[in-house]
């Protein structure tokens, strides 16, 4: 599922009523979760953190900016933090299944709307910047609010969106896109802040001053200090002592975990600290983390141990938690620390017990129905293939296929996870279609809107089972491979993986066909009908071959 984070900073940190009103504006938008509100009285600034489906996050950001414009008067604002607007900055951050360019495009969409509807000058910054010099927020915000009247007269400071005039009440807003920032601390068994800081200087991107054997700072021919580059890009670090923990820490900001992940920094610090006679006792994550970042760390340590990575994602992340000592200073709860888990619906079908799901399925409620069951079957197929692969890894007599089994197990887990998402997506699509049917149809405008929403939701109700059908084909291909190389003691399980994948495929196909009559788009119907027929034919062919193979070997 596409997931995007937004971290707007508002120039108000003292008036709780204003902050509560902004938070309420965000909460009015569906499919967005307000994760955190962090006010600062001295800075007179508050950082809001929210995440959810991209279009919903953009809407929530607009509503928050609109509310801030109504309630915050920048002509009366004073605080320690640099600022230029009621909504000072508003960055979008990719969390899952999002590219940086997509976030930049959403920044442009929001910027255009803020400029046109609210009359606030908007400057795009960081990865959304329209000119290189505006990538740096400090440049965009130079001179702060007080410099805006002069900038309004300077053609070089024409905003990307909104009027090129001074908005005395709201100031100007910087809207952009950036990578997720991970705030990460490494714990040491020393109280010596200097030793922690020496390690920090070694790893941080900006490096440290070069010194000669006598400890004197080195300078080049022009008298400039010579710097030894640090070991990691996108890494800012400082050493400090924490009274509450009675130890020194290396405090780190990783501004692009995709370039420099936390586990690589930790492994290197462990090595460098040991050379100094210091032990790393654990580490600490400040705030939340994207699931992908913690999974990457878990996979890293599983690979170091030469163990299968084709296990459930929570087990992979627990490996990261244990390997990095993330629970040393306090409990590390995945449901609270991982962004995707923290915003997950608590009443989702996928979270039900098997009994609970079957009980709900057996009532007269129209959903969940066959589409959700199809997705569940696809998930079970992927899980079975992963199981057979894991039962093959490191088993005597299967050394020659170990590499294949190690490669196939994660594929089964991936199919399982994607199919589980489709359980709720299918039911959600059904209810959206029902909502569209209930729209008023008294006027021509209402009829046109209702027809458009019906077509949109009907197509979605077709595309979700199509996604399940595509996953079913992946599951059948995987079951075919697993059946060939898998542990013969689990050959029947590989066969069941094929059967459940076929059941998923046929069930999904039924749901595509029954909803197709609701669409009034001939081109869409022709394209999807043809694609689905081709997919189901391939599924049936693969399933037949698997069944013949399994029966032959079992008998």
Strand content: 5-15%
Structural category is: alpha+beta
Provide the CATH architecture of the largest domain: Up-down Bundle
> Whole-Å distance between the termini?
43 Å
What's the CATH class of the largest domain, please?
Answer: Mainly Alpha
For the record, the count of structural domains works out to: 3
Described by the principal axes of the CA atoms, the overall outline is flat
**Total of helices:** 17
How many distinct beta strands? 13
Task: Return residue spans where pLDDT drops below 50 for at least 5 consecutive residues.
Answer: none
Q: What Rg is obtained from the alpha carbons, in whole angstroms?
A: 28 Å
Order of helices and strands: EEHEEHEHEHHEEHEEEEHEHHHHHHHHHH
Task: State the helicity in percent bands.
Answer: 40-55%
Mean pLDDT: 95
> Can you summarize the main beta sheet?
7 strands, mixed
CATH-assigned fold name of the largest domain:
Four Helix Bundle (Hemerythrin (Met), subunit A)
Q: What is the CATH homology-level superfamily of the largest domain? A: Formiminotetrahydrofolate cyclodeaminase monomer, up-and-down helical bundle
Multimeric state of these chains?
single chain
Care to describe what's here?
This protein has 555 residues and is an alpha+beta fold. It has three domains: 3-177, Formiminotransferase-cyclodeaminase, Chain B, domain 1 (2-Layer Sandwich), CATH 3.30.990.10; 182-342, 2-Layer Sandwich (Alpha-Beta Plaits), CATH 3.30.70; 349-554, Up-down Bundle (Four Helix Bundle (Hemerythrin (Met), subunit A)), CATH 1.20.120. It is 51% helix and 14% strand. It has 17 helices and 13 strands. The strands form three sheets. Strands 1, 2, 3, 4, 5, 6 and 7 form a seven-stranded mixed β-sheet that branches. Strands 11-12-8-13 form a four-stranded antiparallel β-sheet. A hairpin with a 4-residue loop joins strand 3 and strand 4. Helix 13 (370-392) runs antiparallel to helix 14 and helix 16 (491-516) runs antiparallel to helix 17. The longest helix has 42 residues, at 444-485. The chain is flat, with a radius of gyration of 28 Å.
């Amino acid at each position: 599922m596409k997931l995007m984070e937004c971290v707007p900073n508002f120039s108000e940190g003292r008036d709780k009523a204003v902050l509560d009103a902004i938070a309420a504006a965000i909460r009015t938008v569906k499919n967005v979760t307000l994760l955190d509100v962090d006010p600062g009285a001295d800075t007179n600034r508050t950082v809001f953190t929210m995440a959810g489906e991209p279009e919903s996050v953009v809407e929530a950001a607009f509503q928050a900016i609109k509310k801030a414009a109504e309630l915050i008067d920048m002509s009366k604002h004073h605080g320690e933090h640099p600022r230029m607007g009621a909504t000072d900055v508003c960055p979008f951050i990719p969390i899952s299944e999002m590219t940086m360019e997509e976030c930049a495009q959403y920044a442009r969409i929001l910027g255009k709307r803020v400029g046109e509807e609210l009359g606030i000058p908007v400057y795009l910054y960081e990865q959304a910047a329209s000119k290189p010099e505006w990538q740096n927020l400090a440049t965009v915000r130079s001179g702060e609010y007080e410099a805006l009247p002069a900038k309004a007269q300077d053609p070089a400071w024409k905003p990307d969106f909104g009027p090129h005039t001074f908005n005395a009440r709201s100031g100007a807003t910087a809207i952009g896109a950036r990578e997720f920032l991970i705030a990460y601390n490494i714990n040491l068994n020393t109280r010596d802040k200097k030793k922690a800081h020496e390690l920090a200087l070694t790893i941080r991107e900006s490096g440290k001053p070069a010194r000669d054997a006598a400890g004197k700072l080195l300078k080049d021919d022009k008298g400039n200090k010579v710097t030894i580059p640090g070991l990691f890009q996108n890494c800012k670090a400082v050493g400090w002592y924490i009274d509450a923990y009675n130890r020194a820490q290396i405090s780190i900001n990783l501004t692009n975990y995709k370039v420099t992940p936390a586990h690589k920094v930790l492994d290197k610090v462990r090595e460098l600290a040991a050379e100094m006679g210091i032990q790393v006792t654990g580490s600490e994550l400040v705030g939340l983390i994207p699931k992908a970042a913690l999974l990457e760390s878990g996979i890293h340590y599983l690979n170091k141990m030469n163990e299968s990575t084709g296990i459930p994602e929570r087990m992979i992340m627990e490996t990261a938690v244990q390997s990095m000592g993330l629970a040393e200073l306090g409990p590390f709860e995945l449901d609270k620390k991982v962004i995707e888990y923290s915003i997950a619906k608590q009443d989702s079908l996928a979270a039900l017990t098997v009994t609970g799901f079957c009980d709900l399925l057996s009532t007269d409620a129209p959903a969940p129905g066959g589409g959700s069951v199809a997705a569940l079957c696809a998930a079970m197929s992927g899980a079975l293939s992963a199981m057979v692969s894991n039962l093959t890894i490191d088993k005597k007599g299967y050394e020659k296929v170990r590499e294949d089994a190690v490669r196939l197990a994660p594929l089964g887990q991936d199919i399982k996870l994607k199919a589980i998402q489709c359980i709720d997506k299918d039911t959600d699509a059904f209810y959206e279609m029902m909502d569209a049917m209930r729209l008023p149809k008294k006027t021509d405008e209402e009829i046109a809107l209702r027809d458009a929403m019906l077509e949109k939701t009907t197509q979605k109700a077709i595309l979700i089972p199509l996604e399940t059908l595509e996953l079913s084909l992946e599951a059948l291909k995987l079951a075919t491979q697993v059946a060939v190389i898998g542990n013969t003691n689990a050959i029947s399980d590989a066969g069941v993986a094929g059967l459940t994948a076929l059941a998923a495929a046929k069930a999904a196909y039924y749901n595509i066909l029954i909803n197709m009559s609701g669409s009034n788009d001939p081109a869409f119907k022709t394209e999807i009908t043809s694609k689905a027929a081709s997919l189901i034919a391939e599924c049936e062919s693969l399933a037949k071959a698997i069944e013949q193979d399994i029966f032959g070997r079992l008998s």
